[in-house]
Amino acid sequence: MTAVSTATLDYAATGAQIQAHEYAYQRSPDQDAPTPATHPVVVVGAGPVGLSLAIDLAQRGQKVLLLDNDNRLSSGSRAICFAKRTLEVWDRLQVGEVMCAKGVEWNRGRVFFKDQPLYSFDLLPEPGHERPAFINLQQYYAEAYLAVRAAALPNIDMRWKNAVVGVQQGADGVQLDVDTPEGRYRIQADYVAACDGSRSAMRSLLGQESKGRVFRDRFLIADVRMQADFPAERWFWFDPPFHPNQSVLLHRQPDGVWRIDFQLGWDADPELEKQPDRIVPRVNAMMRQALGHEVPFELEWASVYTFACLRMAQFAHGRVLFVGDSAHGVSPFGARGANSGVQDADNLAWKLDLVLRGQAGKALLDSYASEREFAADENILNSTRATDFITPKSEVSRLFRDATLSLARQHAFARKLVNSGRLSTPSALTQSPLNTADQPDDGFTAGLPPGAPAVDAPLTVPGQPAWLLRCLSGNTFTALVFDGADTETIQRAVQAASLGLQPVQVLVLPSEGPLAERYDARPGTTYLLRPDQHVCARWRHPTTTQLAGALRRALARA
């Protein structure tokens, strides 16, 4: 196939066009430079995480070199469940709209045991959010939309078929050896973000490894194209008659494609189970159980996977920062892989930007590692518990699980114990060193504590309906000031406390209504948000000294 340029891929491309698309390898000036060229940031890996990080940095004005060892996007559905928080990050990167327009939105799920429905759940039970709890979207669409956005930013240099094969760190930067179809060349980087996935070459080159637990089980992914009457919900079966003693998961995707995961057991032959003559009877049996009849379908893609929950001991190694699957991996139950990776990128981008500008020091980058290591541990804990419940490894464990499922049909308390995958939610970084603790006399009993991600809500901006998260700049800190007699004083105090940064954004908000309720706000209540929309401090009536101290702490200057 003839390689084509990035510009020929656009938001209107079909799934087949995206998966067949090849990016052109182009010789770069660095390959002919007499001495290694220096780049402020090199991002290694052009998957959803690396592309998100590169776009975020570029939108902040940084020049980014993005290297990928391949020249194609992913094939098959792979990661498909993108959470509300990820969509909110992508809104800021100007791709959220196209993602949601193509994706299948869903908030509800159902759980079945044997041949009976147990209960349903709603992941977004309250109104007043712009984005759904999740969309289902094949990973190749997500990568394509991010790649189109990255290609539109002049300060991103995307180089395909550029594989990093050597890494050497110094006090002032990182030296990379890059292999291409025309031979090797060498570059220097102030910082490197390793976003090159679970089989990270960067991790191996630095002599690092991920440790954890590998689960002795296998699952089959089957993407089938069909016209079926299933709703846009997550359906999970425990021990169904059509697949006894195992579990099955169903998701609807765009283009009439359905994702079905069949648990196979550890002794299954991966190559044999990917064959159509093994997959077709399984799908037909599921249709007869769920719909009462078979539905014609076309098998689009299949894969068999074994999963693990593991992570690197440290995500930061000198000036090399590990992001996404290169740093941590989880089982697929709960959709925590790609979503946590995008949140890694969201956490790192603003910190690296301020460090490159000389407005923050190494301690701020250290907080990237500590915060996202905490988040990884939280995700691994949830994924491990889900996997143990879904795939019991002893007769006692199975008896406990089945008893819990039987009780869940009629008893709400048992439903809290059922674990078909605790679905991805953003980590509340409550232990972060960047937080300023609540003052005891402020009397917060609800709302968002320091470390929590900001929650969206509707509001009115000069007579027009809007959404809170859309109003946040993303490039600087934001003060949410709930109106009161001292609003002007607080605004002046915020600006006086800005410590020479880009001026703090101030949003004056009503102290009544759903937004105020979500933030436990009274007149004068003030929240200070980091550029990644996490709360770093809140007060009832802050002073200039308090605001300056919170900003200093959030920049790791304290």
3D architecture notes:
The chain is built from 16 helices and 27 strands. Helix 2 packs parallel to helix 5 and helix 14 packs across helix 16. The protein starts with 14 loop residues before the first helix and ends with a helix. Strands 1, 2, 8, 9, 10, 11, 19 and 20 form an 8-stranded mixed sheet that branches. Strands 6-5-14-15-16-13-17 form a 7-stranded mixed sheet, sandwiched between helices. Strands 25-24-26-27 form a 4-stranded mixed sheet, covered by helices on one side. The protein folds into 3 domains: 242 residues, FAD/NAD(P)-binding domain; 88 residues, Alpha-Beta Plaits; 115 residues, Glutaredoxin (3-Layer(aba) Sandwich). The longest helix is centred in the C-terminal third of the chain and has 29 residues. The radius of gyration is 24 Å and the shape is globular. With 558 residues, it is α+β, with helices and mostly antiparallel strands. Strand 26 and strand 27 form a beta hairpin.
What layout of secondary structure does this protein have?
Layout: H1 15-20, E1 37-44, H2 48-59, E2 64-68, E3 81-83, H3 84-92, H4 96-102, E4 104-106, E5 108-113, E6 116-122, E7 134-136, H5 139-151, E8 156-160, E9 163-169, E10 174-180, E11 183-194, H6 201-205, E12 210-214, E13 219-226, E14 234-238, E15 247-252, E16 257-263, H7 270-273, H8 276-291, E17 297-305, E18 308-312, E19 316-317, E20 320-322, E21 328-329, H9 337-356, H10 362-390, H11 395-408, H12 412-415, E22 458-461, E23 464-467, H13 468-471, E24 478-482, H14 487-496, E25 505-509, H15 514-518, E26 526-529, E27 535-539, H16 544-554
Parallel strand pairs: 1-2, 1-11, 2-8, 5-14, 11-20, 24-25
Antiparallel strand pairs: 3-7, 4-7, 5-6, 9-10, 10-11, 12-18, 13-16, 13-17, 14-15, 15-16, 18-21, 19-20, 22-23, 24-26, 26-27
Helix pairs in contact: 2-5, 2-9, 3-4, 9-10, 14-16
